[in-house]
Amino acid sequence: MKPRVLSRAELPVDTMEMARFLIGKLLVRDTPEGRVTGRIVETEAYPPGDASGHHFRGETAANRSMFLEPGRAYVYFIYGVHFMLNVSSEPARTGGGVLFRALEPVDGLDLMRARRGLVRFRDLARGPGRLAQALAIRPELNGADMCREGPIWLAKAPGPVGEIGVSIRIGITKEAHQLRRFYERGNLCVSGRVALNAS
Q: CB of 136 within 8 A of CB of 77?
């Protein structure tokens, strides 16, 4: 069944609420090679005022997408190795974003494997760097409208969502105690330590 676009009107205009809301929804990536689709099973929230967020010191040319209306892609490069994919999550001119941390692959597994190599199903898009590689996330997606069909877009949940867990975020030092990571409990495609996924 063809995924149905998630409209902007359906998105919560609040970073924490959106990070939870996105669990179970679909992330769709269309390229000339074909379509890749994954079910979102892990996110992290970076709300206004969060010292670990790229928006904390205000709007710049590099982070401008975080200050657009909700539903815009924000792509950045980290550690000289990985791209990361986020979605803007606050009213226009207010910085905030949700990081996509893990997907459960749904469609386009052959494309994912071609990009990721011979890895287990659960590892195709488990962790934000792997996710970006599996979906061929590139700088030109920065600012893309994810609330309409295009190169990258959000779609409605294909079925029921499991219990949602909440924990501290992974790999940050500022505001590391904040409970701003959301994940579907029991899903093998969720990243992080086992102990972290028991909360």
A: no
Which residue from 29, 26, 5, 47 is spatially nearest to 141, judged by alpha carbons? 29
Is there a contact between 189 and 102 (Cβ–Cβ < 8 Å)?
yes
User: Topology of domain 8-198, per CATH?
Assistant: 3-methyladenine DNA Glycosylase; Chain A (3.10.300)
Whether 118 has a pLDDT exceeding 90, the answer reads no
First to last CA, the chain: 34
Shortest CA distance to 67 belongs to which of 84, 52, 48, 50? 48
Whole-angstrom CA distances from 13 to 18, 93, 98, 142, 188 are 7, 13, 12, 20, 29
**Residue 66 has which token pair?**
């975080």
Instruction: Find, among 111, 101, 100, 102, the residue nearest to 134 by Cα.
Output: 111
**Averaged pLDDT, 60-81:** 88
- For 71-99, write each residue's pLDDT tens digit: 999 999 876 678 999 999 999 999 999 99
- Residues 6 or more apart whose CB falls under 8 angstroms from that of 127 comprise 101, 102, 191
Checking if the pLDDT of 170 tops 70, the result is yes
